[in-house]
Amino acid sequence: MATAADTDAMRRAIELAARGLGSTSPNPVVGCVITDASGHVVGEGYHERAGGPHAEIHALRAAGVLARGGTAYVTLEPCNHTGRTGPCAQALTEAGIARVLYAVADPNPQATGGADTLRAAGVEVAHGLLEDEAEAGNIAWLTSVRLGRPYVTWKYAATLDGRIAAADGTSRWISSPESRADVHRLRAESDAVVVGSGTMRADDPHLAVRGIEGATQPLRVVIDTDAAAVRAGARVLDEAAPTLVAVAQDAAPVPYVTAAGTAHGDTAAPVPAAGEAVPSPEPDAGGPAVLRLPRAERGLSVPALLAALHERGVRSVLLEGGPTLAGSFVAAGAVDRVIGYLAPVLLGAGPAALADAGITTITGALRLHVTHTDRIGTDLRVTATVPKGA
Ligand SMILES: Nc1nc(O)c(N)c(N[C@@H]2O[C@H](COP(=O)(O)O)[C@@H](O)[C@H]2O)n1
Family assignment (predicted)? Predict the structure, then answer.
């Protein structure tokens, strides 16, 4: 039976886990709090980066001998395997922990089983305290392990009448500076940012994280079905940051693109298999890698793209545009969360945030669950999730 103190400690562990957002991939975010035998907090920790110590190890190190006879609160079931680091279930047992409360079971078949190992060693174990909150905090990683594809957040900014640009195509700036700053936080928490070449040509977005100290730059993924934007050498391709251009399997050979944006010549390489990335032949010059994917009814195959990204360790994707690409993702059932920045602006004409998503009748509408509504600057930010099985 969990007490109010147990709930407080687990809530703190969830807060700690969130500190790892954006820097632990392909690993989960995990937090841990350790109390001594009389219930005082003696150690805290969180998983900071893949390959580094797990949350439990940081917390045990902080607690030292005071962990003996105490309780460990962990947001994810302690691992049971030797991977890049040793098994946490064993470390907790060796430190003399008497009780372990964890929020969410580990779905990773290589690591699961820590609860059983702890019980077999005589440790009292309970599962499920603040499970929903811990699950929400680690949803990208949990989704990616369960489904074998990254967790996808579609983000857009629109007027109150749902338009992302005026009839003449102008769109800067619909949302407030505060909303735009918030998008940098979203990018910093994502492993990859995905944009269509239409948006790239229209807006030439930078897609990098700015204004967040220590942020890891997400992989920039440009969907450029016929490699037209690559040949045009758009700005996003010029920078020495990781960029992947997804083109159709049968698209014309992709030219080399240098850091200066100069395209010169074809790769002359044989057309690679679907899902195979071809590094730029001038990697030092900052050119993009190219991923060839099967065509689908709408552009490229979204499942093939997500499978290829998952293979590269991408656990979370921020889909930034535009409406056609968003429509393809929705049609493919590949959007998990929607974040809309709604500005108190009316246009009355211009493109809608979402283009055709294959929904033709009201009974087919994708109905979402609103999880948060927040004022951001002068805008309203609505966060909604797609119910499982929708
Ligand atoms: N309980 C727990 N705490 C952490 O802090 C973790 N990072 C994990 N991760 C689990 O172990 C796998 C990663 O193992 P390596 O760090 O690569 O050895 C990860 O997939 C999770 O299952 N668990």
Answer: In the N-terminal section; belongs to the cytidine and deoxycytidylate deaminase family. In the C-terminal section; belongs to the HTP reductase family.
